[in-house]
Design goal:
Number of strands: 9
Largest sheet: 5 strands, antiparallel
Oligomer: single chain
CATH class of the largest domain: Alpha Beta
Order of helices and strands: EEEEEEHEEHEH
Number of helices: 3
Helix content: 10-25%
Strand content: 35-45%
Shape: globular
Length: 156
């Protein structure tokens, strides 16, 4: 039975290597089955939890948090999340995000020197990884792969 699209924000509390502290992030999800606590992540996580967009997670109401809260991943989509910190102050962030968009990657930014990018399962990671590595070698960016699928690891 096809369910009509509906969404729910869930809370995620985790340790972020980027910020070196525990962060709380709220993410939009598509409700798969609210009674079973199944939700599909609908945007790119910012600071590096153990999942990516389109992953299905288990979440339940947490009395202390006062809202539906992430517990664990039920099914991985195979999508990967990449974090990018801009080191070169002269680097045009929007231009860089557009270059990755041309390679098929959606991005979400949080200001002028940091953004996250999703690499969909179907995408070849090698040209994306090559570009990331070239930019890092040139000291224009630093990047991390907080959640990378086995498929993408094998394509480096």
């Amino acid at each position: 039975m096809m369910q009509s699209y509906n969404s729910e924000k869930i809370l995620v509390r985790y340790f972020s290597d980027v910020l070196d502290e525990i962060v709380v992030e709220t993410l939009w999800t598509e409700i798969i089955d609210a009674e079973k606590g199944l939700y599909k992540i609908d945007n790119i996580p910012f600071y590096g939890p153990e999942f990516s967009s389109d992953d299905i997670v288990f979440a339940e109401f947490d009395v202390d948090e006062g809202r539906i809260t992430f517990r664990n991943v039920v099914e991985y989509s195979g999508n990967s999340t990449i974090q990018i910190i801009i080191l070169d102050k002269d680097q045009n962030v929007q231009k860089l995000r557009n270059e990755f968009k041309e390679l098929g990657c959606e991005t979400e930014g949080t200001g002028s020197n940091y953004f996250v990018m999703e690499v969909l399962y179907e995408q070849k990671y090698s040209p994306i990884f090559k570009k990331l590595t070239e930019l890092e070698t040139a000291e224009k960016i630093s990047f991390a792969e907080p959640n990378i699928s086995q498929k993408h690891i094998s394509e480096k």
